[in-house]
User: Fold this.
Amino acid sequence: MFGPVVHAWSEHRRAALSILAGFAVLYACIWVPNHLLFRTYALDLGLYTHALWQYAHGHPADTALFLHDVQPLLADHFDLYLPLLSPLVLILGTWTLLVVQWAAILFGAWGIRRTLLLMGAGPRPAMVGMVVFLAYFGVFTAVAFDYHSSVVAAMFLPWFIAAMVQGRTGQGILWFLLMLIAKENIGLWIGVVALVLSNVSCVPGRMRAACYGLGALGFAWSALVIGCIMPSLAADGAYAHADYSIVLEGTEGPLQKVVGMLTALFTDHVGVPDGTAIKLEFWVMLLLAGGWALLLRPVWGIMALPLLAQKMLHDDPGKWSVVAHYAVEFAPLIAIAVGLSVQHWSGRAWSTVLVVVFSLATTARCMDNTIAYQDRSRIRFYQAEHWHRNHDTMPVEQAMRTIPPDASVSASSPAIPHLACRDQVFQFPILRDAQWVLVMPLESPYPLTTAGSKAVVDSLRKEGWSTRMETLEVILLERP
Assistant:
């Protein structure tokens, strides 16, 4: 009697593992060539990889790599993953964080399937939820960006929910804490998630106290870190990312302030080109990729409200967009809501197919063209330009091999992730006591202009720096 049932579950599990493996290869086809071909950069991969190296050697990580005013790196983002992950850099080197993020996404996808099964969804709806998660545009753009700890934190959310559904308080607390320590503002999101979970029917009543306690902990942690700890570490005594003028500034009354904030969720509030279009593009993409399920299942939509507020009310238009890692946290909420919605569509196979098709279509659109700028060669794995550069990278690799492993270096942004495993490395034009300078003239000169970068190189030569190598692709200078 139980044989066919067990066989069916085994078949679904094997199918889910096959899908997971397929997406694992697909993601690797994005991030592996990007790193090999110098399409990862000082911010954020180079900075965080160097932080791993500093922590692994017993030194507190700082901002010397990219800021003239040196302060603890925790003053910029309160990321405790980096010291925890730091031993891995001694094994995986400059690939460490890329591998961690890749593995975390796959882990999170499997957590979506497990959570949906625990919440009563059948194997097929659970698989649909997992596929929607894996195919979500925000996951692909995060993989194409390089690395950010908020991506890893979001992948623990389904495992936290699964633990609460099972009534496993200890496991729930562990997953909650692992998310909380990723970044200073995560508590403002998962605090709401925990409180809302207390009213989800599949969470046992005995878990309500734990949900309330974790919700309060999330808010208290973020308030303490943002309000006290980070300002005390910062050189200027202020939190570095309080870029919410629509919330923090202005003299209008409370009602006008609320109306202004609600309007700013959908329209440009800082006056940038295509600002409103960037916001509307995100809303359309989110809804088509599965956000509609957050409306059908409003309990999961409520959990997304802090994400929407933090994203759309920020003063940086890049945060509003569909690119980079700025939409990834929605992935687990959308996937769970979609899986639960599909559960009630038994006998409507066409609707399930349509859900997956729309999810894939939004991702394809994100790869093909977006209003917000992104380097599409980083994400278009299906085009030849993703697999090679329009200039030779071998001279750059040769120049990097010329630099002694214990020497301090100032380098162009694309070279920093490859040179990060050393005691001192700085983003050009920051020099400090660098013994070597490596400039890649064909790459973006950020934070300088092309003319500005050339002027600094010319100035160094006049000061006596010797040219150890010079090609069209790379200039390598050594301090006298």
Q: What stands out?
A: Residues 1-7 have pLDDT under 50 and may be disordered.
